[in-house]
């Protein structure tokens, strides 16, 4: 693995983890009215496109990190819907 791949993997991991603090906060507080559902849906669409791009390029770090991001994002969407009016 060369330095470019290491940088790409690190960037993907950090980006994938960026929503985790919000997921944890929402889960603990059981409140999500300030979280934009539209933003989450736009992000989800972008992540899916990144996965397609990674598949077409056969780039496992892009595929893996964005798949993780989709899981985190879907979790946040579920929490947003569940705790919307709490």
UniProtKB/TrEMBL annotation:
Membrane topology of the entry: Multi-pass membrane protein
Gene Ontology cellular component list: membrane
Subcellular location: Membrane
Keyword Plastid set for record: no
UniProt keyword list: Membrane, Transmembrane, Transmembrane helix
Gene3D superfamilies, per the entry: 1.20.1280.290
Molecular function in Gene Ontology: sugar transmembrane transporter activity
Residues forming coiled coils: none
Keyword Cell cycle: no
Identification of the protein by name: MtN3 and saliva related transmembrane protein
Organism per entry: Flavisolibacter ginsengisoli DSM 18119
């Amino acid at each position: 693995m060369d330095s470019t791949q290491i940088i790409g993997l690190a960037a993907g991991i950090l980006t994938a983890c960026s929503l985790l603090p919000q997921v944890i906060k929402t889960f603990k507080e059981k409140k999500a009215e300030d979280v934009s559902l539209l933003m989450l849906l736009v992000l989800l669409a972008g992540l899916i496109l990144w996965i397609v791009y990674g598949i077409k390029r056969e780039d496992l770090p892009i595929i893996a990190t964005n798949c993780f991001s989709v899981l985190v994002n879907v979790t946040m969407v579920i929490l947003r819907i569940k705790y919307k009016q709490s």
